[in-house]
Amino acid sequence: MDPQITSQVLRQARVHLLAHGECPPGAVQARIASSWQRSLRAGVQPVGRVSGGDPLTGSEMRQVLTRSEDLLAIARPVMDYVFEQIQDSHSMVILANAQSTLLHTLGDAPFLNKAERVALRSGAIWTEEARGTNAIGTALVEATPLRVEGAEHFLEANSFLNCAASPIFSAQGQLLGVLDISGDQRLAQAHTLGLATTAARMIENRWLLARHQRDWRMHFHTQAEGVGTAAEGILALAPDGLLLGGNRAAMQSLKIAAADWGHLHWDDISAMPLRDWLARGHTHTERLHLAALHTGRSVFARLVMPAGAQATSTAATQAALPSDRAGRAPLAAMPQQPAPDALAQLDTGDLAWRAAAERGRRTLGKGIALLVQGESGVGKELFARALHDSSARHAGPFVAINCAAIPEHLIEAELFGYESGAFTGARRDGQLGRLREAQGGTLFLDEIGDMPLALQTRLLRVLQERSITPLGGGKAQQLDFALVCATHHQLREAVAQGRFRADLFYRINGLALQLPALRERSDREAITRRLLDQFNPGQAVRLHPDLAFAMAHYPWPGNLREYANALQTASALLLPGEDSIGWSQLSDDLAQELLRYREGAQMAVAALAAQAQPPSLPATDLKTLSHAAIAQMLQQCRGNVSQAAKLLGISRQTLYRRLKAA
After folding, report:
1. What are phi and psi of 220, to 5 degrees?
2. 611 pLDDT exceeds 50?
3. What's the pTM?
């Protein structure tokens, strides 16, 4: 069909949608029609001013880039390769994170200038709720590669674009981001979606290899020539054959779901058990072997062992190994997975926390000072101790000092120590000082933003010289410790205001790690389960659904500290035989606060429900439609905001914002 006719049909279909709340049958592809419906429910208007907000800049953008550091490092070379293929075609390559924030772009200068007029640049947020149907936001919602061409974009301003995007998944099936190729609609190329999909798979494969360097890997394809290409399937395995993850090709060809990782074994999918594979010496990284699958197909496969791993090569040794109750050999001759370090043991699944832990882990033993930032109660000291316990210094001391808790006139002696008779009231035999107590281990300076200015000067000199002279004289002592500092203050602002020395800030800020607040974390359920198990050993204690709903709406200004205290107190107040924590187990003041937040949410739902009667539906009254859709969905989900937001195709933060505005 002529492109102009197609555009005209699509625009008419969009007008019909605005007027009647649905697309005319057959006028729009099903996936695009669904996205238009979500855009409409989100209150996006096809014409007029775009309300997507200004692109992120400054510290906000730096935090986003920091959290996406690994993805950017892996994706950039692939993006360079893709751009070489599309150069001089009025196009651009875009990488966005899982929240649809644009991280990195490459493109032809003339087209980049045009694209920037619709905020197609780094820092812009391209969710459906912000910019309507678009390849980036829609591919993330649908979790599948797709094209959005010309007038298929919900916003009229974007109809000059032809976009193809493919989501990027981790080895465990988690959305990492999206790779998009956007260009001029008039110069659209049919192969663009295939190129975007191939690039996304290249990134996924590189991600898997980087994250599973210490694990066994099985590379396979139905054709021998396919092994080693972007089309190969890759599985990451534990030494006993447990499947830890895999790429999209592996999941599709073996019909493995993301929920299967950590449950399926190689022996569940292959007719040749792993013990037999090893017994026949099939561990050479250059040799391919034909492996029969339980599906009846066969694949050419290569087993790659991690560096330094040794496996027995004789069938007799393997046959002598005992089997577990499932009949699998534990393969005792194979290397065991390294035990999870202290950081991994703290990890309950939040991506922002995990990113901070991974970046901190990489600096251990490299002499880099770490600055842990976050609100009070987010667990900065716990995080610092886990860094210490995960490092080569774990056998040394971990010395924690709260700079805000020591009186100013004592803090110098407390930190630096003193000789006998250094001042009136000094101990007869002097004092070593906390800095020297940390020798060979880790020094943790909590709330360093509250350190007096005069003391900051001396601390800076100690950190520069790595030696200390106690008060009252004596011989200078060499210092050897890892330094971790923490604060809930914005130290850059304190430096600008003259409350904190700039040179000390740069000395302690080798790498800043931001820990998320409890209200921002995606692993609240896992945290709750872990705390309840900790406070109620051997019991399956749970939260009453009504209380759990209220707790989910409360901002927890004291973060993990406040939340843990509340659950510990509630657990202590349970009567023998009780396994459900309800309102009666809470302290009175907390119960009142939680009830207030719960009632506020319920009132907002009721206010929206009052607007939910079927209106005569003027085509421009998108706000009423949006409020009605939210009210109906909340009622359907029985007040579960997270579930309602997911079904509506908007973020939980946006839903809260609209509840407050109702």
Report:
1. -150, 160
2. no
3. 0.50
